[in-house]
Amino acid sequence: MHPAHIAMFSIAAHGHVNPSLEIVRELVARGHRVTYAVPESFAGKVAVTGAEPRIYRSTLPTEDEPEAWGTEVIDNVEPFLADAVQALPQQLAAYEGDEPDLVLADITAYPARVLAHRWGVPFVQLSPNLVAWEGYEEEVAAPMVAEIMSTERGRAYYARFRAWLDENGLSHLSPDEFAGRPPRSLVVMPKALQPQADRVDESVYTFVGACQGDRAEQGDWQRPADAEKVLLVSLGSAFTKEPEFYRECLRAFGDLPGWHVVLQIGKFVDPAELGPVPDNVEVHDWVPQLAVLRQADAFITHAGAGGSQEGLATATPMVAVPQAVDQFGNAAVLESLGVARHVPKEQATAQALREAVLAVADDPEVAARLAAVGREMAAEGGTKRAADLIEAELPAR
User: CA 83 to CA 69: how far, in whole Å?
Assistant: First the structure.
């Protein structure tokens, strides 16, 4: 395989950058030159893979301000179009005279598909969460589109999107096709987490599973010698401003005989808000999650895409307490797989959390289902298969 210039595009969000990093590292190891368009805050994380960061300025809300995403569907979609319109000229300038042989892009990186079209090079999407199945538009997307189009603001959004596609030579695509129907997609999550998986067109969407690597650069964690059982509690990196939930966890598991608790509270909560912390609980604003999960017996998770697949990859029984967006669907899928209990946020009392954790941690059926899903994930190929498939899309020299 001749070395190629591959350009990757993403946004400043852990859940969108992290799934690509091991794939990028593998492509670099195979001799390809990889550039990675990303905001400054993630440049260091990209650079350690051997890729060259191409910095652009983003207008998207950061993970430090999750409330800026609003509460309605239109609040969630408008920022991506606005960011794409202002980012496209920056990225065109950054690649002038150094156009790549292939464009890789996270699902949120709208300018990437435009650039691939303008440069006349293959476009491959990396999807860290669920993808469309046959019938998805009618069953799921249509009600959301109808909701958006019912308002003047929503109609203006679609008109702006249509005009942007037209001026960039993509008149043949509707805004929804552009955003949700790529010509080629690698799904960097286990197929087990995909709803309606049997109706996904696998000539377009290939499930390569989790591409996690060893995450050694994130540090290690050691299980205390006297811990009979270990519980990790984490709501991820964005929707973590939940001090009352953490206090319920302390009430549920503080001084629970034999259990050691690792409680990640994020950067929005002051540990002082928790009150007294029992001796068997360690509190952190961040932990090397994969390192902890490899030694954990149970995992209370918000059921984000990353946490869900890390729980599956480490065969850790889960209790899902979803907070926002795709987490509700992920929680339902985990429960249907028989590897988790779903506890709605409003019902996450100390008693409910304790009962759910003890139930999944001691259930041989949960352990058997996790083992079965693990075997399926191992067969998906992960990082090396993803790199093989990307190389297969490179134009012949």
Answer: 13
The neighbouring-strand residues paired with 53 are: 36
Q: How far apart are CA 298 and CA 313, in angstroms?
A: 13
Cβ neighbours around 80 below 10 Å, total: 17
Q: pLDDT tens digits, residue range 66-117?
A: 778 788 889 989 999 999 999 999 999 999 999 999 999 999 999 999 999 9
Per DSSP, the three-state class of 12 is coil
Residue 69 has a pLDDT of 79
Question: Which pTM value belongs to this model?
Answer: 0.85
Q: Contact, 209 vs 149, CB < 8 A?
A: no
Structure tokens at 21: 């990093």
- Helix segments in the chain, DSSP class H: 14-29, 43-47, 73-94, 110-119, 136, 142-149, 152-167, 175-180, 243-253, 289-293, 305-313, 327-337, 350-361, 364-378, 382-393
User: What's the rounded Cα separation, in Å, for the pair 26 and 49?
Assistant: 8
